[in-house]
Amino acid sequence: MEWSTKAIEADRPFGSWAEDLADAFVPLEPRKIAEQPFQGTISRTDVASIQISRVEATKHVVLRLRSHIARSIGDVYFVNLQLDGVGRYTQRGHEQICGPGDLAIVDTTEPFEIANCRNFSLFCFAVPRQLLPGALAERPRLRLSATEAGRALSRTLAGHAELCLRSEPNSGISAFGAQHVVDLISHAPGILEERPLERAGLSVLLSMMLDHIDRHADDPELCAATLALKFHCSQRYVHKLFSTTGRSVGEHINGQRILVCTRNLLDHAHRRATIAEVAFNAGFRDISYFNRLFKRSTGLAPREFRRAMSLRTVDGTQ
């Protein structure tokens, strides 16, 4: 589902935005911050009992008033992940300031104000109260951008949100992503407090480690030991997590490296790079080991693969 609006009349500076907000979320009242033409878009998907939305808009304030609440049903939290801009969330005298990568929580059964003082984008997760731990009712400050673990969680949460928005609503993939979203939000306070992450739950911690591998596979030192050090758990626990995937830590790391090498061997921009340079840049240290893994994966040695793909391009067969 999608909504899009812009200011088209002087007496309606927000166009249909108030109606769009009510359709996509709950009744809210938008107010201007500055004299600037307004534009806003909302994309939403409903998965199981939660709603995941991406909002992009010109800077403005939204209010949740008692009059709105009186005619609303449902008991949900809005958990917002700021992507761009800066948001200030105020509810019952409690204030949260969110920059990119931070989370903020508001309870839709009470009045609140959200002020985005710059043009912004964010993910909004509408989650029923009963799915989240009671401690979140205190609206803790969730500055995920302040710690390495928090930033990893923020990236993982955004990735699952994007996956859900791009998948068919009733697909297994979207249901999988939605469950992970709830798990990640539930464990955000503990992760920020740097409690032992072994308490965070298998799915949450594994998602964060897999995200880290995707981003840092080119680090030759990356292994179970470095993952354990980064995520504050034991190597034994790292291996236990990865055993649930059917592949070892090393297989995940090497799989990502082989993927990068395959892409670079196909990329015309890397045509002057030697096979060794491609391998070493992806994180491999041993060229013989890389050659064996690559052939096992593609059926061809790296040099043969590059030559065969180049010939197919020249012949017009690709």
Report on this structure.
The chain has helices spanning 17-24, 66-70, 148-166, 172-192, 202-216, 224-230, 235-243, 249-266, 275-281, 287-298, 302-314; strands at residues 2-6, 29-32, 39-47, 50-57, 60-64, 76-84, 87-91, 94-98, 103-107, 112-116, 120-128. It has 318 residues and is an alpha+beta fold. The protein folds into 2 domains: 2-150, Jelly Rolls (Sandwich); 196-318, Arc Repressor Mutant, subunit A, CATH 1.10.10. The chain has a 6-stranded antiparallel sheet with strand order 1-3-4-11-6-9, sandwiched between helices. Strands 2-5-10-7-8 form a 5-stranded antiparallel sheet. Strand 3 and strand 4 (50-57) form a beta hairpin. The longest helix is centred in the middle third of the chain and has 21 residues, at 172-192. Residues 196-200 and 312-318 have low confidence and may be disordered.
